[in-house]
Write a structure and sequence with these properties.
Blueprint (H helix, E strand, L loop, with lengths): L2 H4 L3 H31 L5 H22 L4 H25 L3 E8 L4 H9 L4 E8 L2 E11 L3 H11 L4 E7 L13 H11 L5
Antiparallel strand pairs: 1-3, 1-4, 2-3
Helix pairs in contact: 2-3, 2-4, 5-6
Length: about 200
């Protein structure tokens, strides 16, 4: 059997095409999910590039589905690829840990030791006195790179194990808010991806 005949065989139409459709959908939906996440973070220069790649792959997949409407396996492959692609897109974006977050820590315990440790680690910290339901509390704010979240959580739990904390994404932060130890190379990368949201 010649190589070209493989693509015309019934077994390829039954198994090969659904597999290719599934892989194409996984790829384009993964890219699409990341594109939406990047848009939400203001990365308007990267998102169109991903969108172009995404739509090219999607057109390839939908063309194969429409050309082989008699095989129900193509529809299942299309749906399966879509589901897996969504999961992978979110998973990959989480591993990339792009962007910055604000960490808000509310504690009844004196937060001075925690604030000192965070500052020693290179983070800008703001401490406020506030009133909670059961009395006085301290509110500690710091803005960090999202990739640094696993580093800062052990510090919080060590100095204030009963503290309540929340972590929220932010779209923009001035250069002064980033750790002073950040390299020029990293700052240039951050500037490239965030300048789209600066007016």
């Amino acid at each position: 059997m010649e190589f070209a005949d493989i693509f015309q065989s019934e077994s390829f139409k039954l198994y090969g095409i659904p597999l290719l459709i599934c892989l194409a959908r996984i790829t384009d939906v993964t890219i699409g999910t990341m594109r939406i996440i990047f848009l939400s973070k203001g990365m308007k220069y990267l998102a169109p590039v991903l969108g172009f790649i995404e739509i090219c792959i999607w057109l390839t997949a939908i063309t194969q589905v429409m050309a082989n409407l008699t095989h129900i396996s193509n529809f299942f492959a299309y749906a399966l690829g879509y589901s897996i692609g969504n999961f992978l897109g979110i998973f990959i974006e989480g591993k990339l840990a792009i962007g910055t977050v604000v960490v808000r820590i509310i504690t009844k315990k004196d937060s001075r030791a925690l604030a000192v440790k965070l500052r020693e680690s290179g983070y800008a910290v703001t401490v406020l006195d506030a009133e909670g339901n059961t009395g006085a509390v301290n509110v500690v704010f710091t803005v960090i790179k999202r990739a640094d979240v696993p580093k800062i959580l052990p510090i919080i739990l060590h100095y204030n194990p009963n503290a309540v904390y929340s972590i929220e994404d932010i779209r923009y932060i001035s250069e002064q808010g980033l750790p002073s130890s950040e390299s020029r190379y990293k700052r240039n990368i951050m500037n490239f991806f965030t300048r789209g949201i600066r007016k």
